[in-house]
Specification:
The protein is mostly beta strands. The protein contains 1 helix and 28 strands. Strands 1-28-27-26 form a 4-stranded antiparallel β-sheet, with no helix packed on it.
């Protein structure tokens, strides 16, 4: 058997795609929020430097392939919900202690002035809330106060107000949320603890204001990096109780077929991070290599199909 044939068989076994490394972050971090504006990727808050309430915000500039620090969060938090929308970064909630003590903070970052400004506080404190932009609205789904919640509210930046929408069928936190094709997809997550991970795929139709079920994720997980890439929703990494290392699993959901497929696994297990897609690449910055918050990483992992 030739080396080329062996390589082809190995590639088929692990699934399509490949991983490479980008420039390392200046500070090793986990339990961060990840948001994107144009060709810039922001990594926000989290665990770092021996603390769980970091206000550090770093941005990766793809054109120069360099990292730099920008204005810090108004206060140190982990498990913040964040999203880029119309040239600004919006952040919601978070924990002020280790995966605990949820807050109702909400702020917006303007890169043109390098400043944070408060916006209307969340209706009630939430950490690990999942956030995605659908149309002209910012949807906040799930999360945790002292237990996992079914909460689904929409924030309107134009009016600085929240309105309620149909709640999740099953409350959970550490969940993935993406917008694709005019719908929201709520992926996996946990019910209260990583001992109760889920494989749910819940699909929200804004016209009907209703959720339906998609095919469950093959590997129940929480704390994954989730992003739409090439028409597929990728769920990357994650954690579960009792694992020696975080998941390297990389599974993709195709809404058109309602099916999951396996893709090239992460070179190193990661959880407590997010993903951003710029051009033809998917980026996973920082995150923890083991379950829990005892270790952080400074890697920038790059996936290409």
């Amino acid at each position: 058997m030739t080396r080329l044939l062996i390589a082809a068989l190995l590639a088929a076994a692990v699934g399509p795609g490949s991983w490479s490394s980008g420039p390392a972050l200046p500070v090793a971090r986990s339990e961060v929020a990840v948001a994107q504006l144009d060709d810039r990727i922001y990594v926000i808050g989290g665990y770092a430097n021996g603390g769980v309430d970091q206000n550090l915000v770093e941005v990766y500039e793809l054109r120069s392939r360099t990292w730099r620090a920008v204005a810090s969060l108004p206060r140190g938090l982990n498990h913040v919900g964040a999203v880029g929308y119309r040239g600004k970064i919006y952040v919601f909630g978070g924990f002020s202690e280790q995966n605990d003590a949820a807050v109702a903070d909400a702020d917006v970052y303007d890169p043109s002035s390098d400043t944070w400004t408060p916006i209307a506080a969340l209706p009630h404190p939430l950490g690990s809330v999942s956030v995605a932009v659908l149309g002209d609205e910012i949807h906040l789904v799930g999360g945790r106060d002292v237990h996992s919640v079914r909460t689904h509210v929409v924030y309107d930046p134009a009016t600085d107000r929240y309105t309620e929408r149909a709640p999740l069928p099953v409350g959970r936190d550490h969940m993935g949320l993406v917008a694709l094709g005019g719908r929201l997809y709520a992926i996996g997550g946990r019910i209260d603890t990583p001992a109760h991970n889920t494989a749910y795929v819940d699909v929200y139709d804004p016209q009907a204001n209703a959720w339906t079920q998609g095919t469950p994720m093959p590997t129940p997980r929480s704390g994954m990096a989730v992003a739409p890439y090439n028409g597929i929703i990728f769920a990357i990494g994650g954690e579960a109780r009792g694992m020696a290392g975080a998941f390297t699993t990389n599974e993709g959901y195709d809404p058109a077929t309602n099916q999951w497929s396996q893709y090239a696994p992460l070179p190193h297990g990661r959880h407590g991070t997010g993903a951003a897609v710029v051009g033809d690449r998917l980026y996973v910055p920082a995150g923890a290599p083991v379950p829990g918050g005892s270790e952080q990483s400074n890697t920038l992992l790059v996936f290409t199909l």
